[in-house]
């Protein structure tokens, strides 16, 4: 039985996410009223997930809800920001209550985990499409940006990129893998972990930061370009997970770590003189990041073999399993 | 020739809207950085337009760009807020450059007119769908809400509701009208005027406010319900435009003023003791609003004839010309 827009909002979204004292007026009026703290800059981002483009048709609704928020949390993480308030624009072909209930649960538990209040939104009828707008804040002048890097900075990445692209390929039946690896990799696609705490902890330590959503090689290249530099990655230094190795072998696993999308890890630059402090404050074993290369003078992004020779790559992670 | 997402953003959206000194970092990083003024509350809203649902397929792209921002400006107007920053999530079936150029022009000129900077967004491939998120601010404690009204308050509406619904019906070939009326009414649908200045001027004067997007009768009912009251409208007091009268005659014009959607006018309540000040500060002839009824004790929304008898209405403005 179709529900009216109003009933939909009431039933599934009014009390999702965190209750926050700085929400003066949430869902239910023409707009939300929010009280930002003093001495901050606001941080605002939006990302859309389209059915059949950003997730396979028939994806678990809880995963769609999780990912719609996670991709935005990842953008705020890359700025070193504290997330606070979300708006949800949900376009649905029909008001399927079990779909909505699972979607709201996936969205809601990630929102709770990061202290995010759902303060407004819009539900419309049409082809399945989810847009989340996320607002947060950062102490004035302390945001991480893509453009703060300089030649000589060391470059790091969190987690083990490539996992999500392999998970998507498994979802799509384009890849096979042992059962255990399969479960892990699918989970990395369906429920990525935005590195919000890492991003905030990198303030004052990293010189530049970007989230790895379109593939590490391309995104590291964007950070470098914004920093008026180029980037040099070392192939054998690229971190890859055991499940990815089990599924693809070492060479293909590292290639996918470079070009696969949907990881939502952070790639960040650190001045040479700040590396010791980084390692002391945020022990790599605890925070899960790895040095993968450096910013260099020559523009563009290159990947080096152990013998110093340059590897050739195209950026098209999506076509890996076509 | 298809453009990459990056090129699209660069070419059509980077410099759209107003340049604002409070935009520390706009389009081009993982998120935007914004500097809110001191002593304000943030006001945040989002609305989506879906092709074939919120506008007919083949609508002029400039109108889609205008309306996508206008519907959000209208939400901020209803809160008495000053708009500042917009994010645009644009899902497109293809990167048609002439479509994009016209869309961006429609969006951009309305943004300029209201001092709104476009600070970020996301472009994705998929069925045509436009979501705008608009942020603004209001002096602390001064926002208008739906819930501030009380029994006995006078109820007003800006402009001449019903025009946009007639314009849409003309667009869809479901209504005919004399040429002059036709041009006016189509324009009211294609390029509605959000009442941003009126909303701000009503702060401290109106007790409650809502924007009329789903039909005056229904939206006035929502304001009344949020104010723990009912609403009584006087049929013969409903303002209707000359072109609407020319197209529909008096009875049907007033019916459409009650139930038609897409007007983006403001409906607001004013305490009896504040009406003289309202009329003095904001002369109705200059600001274009009309008293249409009152809030009353009994819940629900009713419309009275001149003889005091109650008219029956369904809310389904969309089915008027089916």
Structural features, described:
The structure is a homodimer of 322-residue chains. Chain A has 322 residues and is of the alpha+beta class. Chain A is 34% helix and 26% strand. In chain A, the strands form three sheets. A seven-stranded mixed β-sheet of chain A has the order 8-10-7-11-9-12-13. Chain A is globular. Chain A starts with a helix and ends in an 11-residue tail after the last strand. The model of chain A is unreliable at 316-322 (pLDDT under 50). Chains A and B meet through strand 2, strand 3, helix 2, strand 4 and strand 5 of A and strand 2, strand 3, helix 2, strand 4 and strand 5 of B. Strand 2 (32-34) of chain A pairs antiparallel with strand 3 (40-50) of chain B.
Structure, briefly:
Two copies of one chain form a homodimer. The first copy, chain A, is an alpha+beta fold and 322 residues long.
CATH homologous superfamily grouping of the largest domain in chain A = PurM-like C-terminal domain
Largest sheet strand order of chain A: 8-10-7-11-9-12-13
**DSSP summary, beta strand count of chain A:** 13
Q: What is the general shape of chain A?
A: globular
Helix percent band of chain A: 25-40%
Mean pLDDT, all residues of chain A = 92
| Assembly category | homodimer
Ends distance of chain A: 39 Å
What is the H-and-E element order of chain A? HEEEHEHEEEHHHEHEHEHHEEE
Question: How many individual domains of chain A?
Answer: 2
Q: CATH topology of the largest domain in chain A, which one?
A: Phosphoribosyl-aminoimidazole Synthetase, Chain A, domain 2
Largest sheet of chain A: 7 strands, mixed
Helix tally of chain A equals 10
Radius of gyration of chain A: 20 Å
Question: Helix/strand-derived class of chain A?
Answer: alpha+beta
User: Regarding CATH, which class of the largest domain in chain A?
Assistant: Alpha Beta
Largest interface: A-B, 59 and 59 residues
Low-confidence stretches of chain A: 316-322
Give the DSSP E fraction of chain A (strand runs of 2 or more residues): 25-35%
């Amino acid at each position: 039985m179709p529900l009216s827009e109003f009933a939909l909002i009431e039933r599934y979204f009014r009390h999702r996410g965190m209750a926050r004292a700085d929400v003066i007026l949430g869902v239910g009026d023409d707009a939300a009223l929010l009280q930002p703290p003093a001495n901050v800059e606001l941080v605002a981002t939006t990302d859309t997930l389209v059915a059949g483009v950003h997730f396979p048709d028939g994806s678990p609704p809880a995963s769609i809800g999780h990912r719609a928020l996670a991709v935005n949390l990842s953008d705020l993480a890359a700025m070193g920001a504290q997330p606070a308030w979300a708006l949800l624009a949900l376009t649905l072909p029909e008001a399927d209550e079990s779909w909505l209930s699972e979607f709201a649960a996936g969205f809601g538990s990630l929102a709770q985990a990061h202290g995010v209040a759902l303060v407004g939104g819009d539900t419309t009828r049409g082809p399945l499409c989810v847009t989340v707008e996320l607002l947060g804040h950062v102490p004035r002048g302390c945001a991480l940006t893509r453009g703060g890097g300089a030649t000589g900075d060391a470059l790091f990445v969190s987690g083990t990129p490539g996992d999500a692209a392999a998970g998507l390929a498994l979802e799509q039946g384009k890849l096979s893998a042992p059962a255990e690896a399969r479960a892990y990799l699918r989970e990395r696609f369906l429920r990525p972990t935005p590195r919000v705490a890492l991003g905030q902890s990198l303030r004052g330590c990293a010189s530049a930061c970007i989230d790895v959503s379109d593939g590490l090689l391309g995104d590291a290249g964007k950070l470098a370009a914004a920093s008026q530099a180029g980037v040099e990655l070392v192939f054998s230094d690229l971190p890859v997970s055991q499940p990815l190795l089990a599924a693809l072998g070492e060479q293909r696993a590292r290639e996918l770590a470079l070009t696969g999308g949907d990881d939502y890890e952070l790639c960040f630059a650190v001045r040479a003189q700040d590396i010791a402090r980084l390692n002391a404050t945020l022990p790599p074993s605890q925070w899960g990041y790895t040095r993968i290369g450096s910013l260099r003078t020559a523009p563009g992004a290159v990947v080096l073999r152990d013998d110093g020779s340059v590897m050739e790559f195209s950026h098209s992670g999506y076509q890996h399993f076509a």
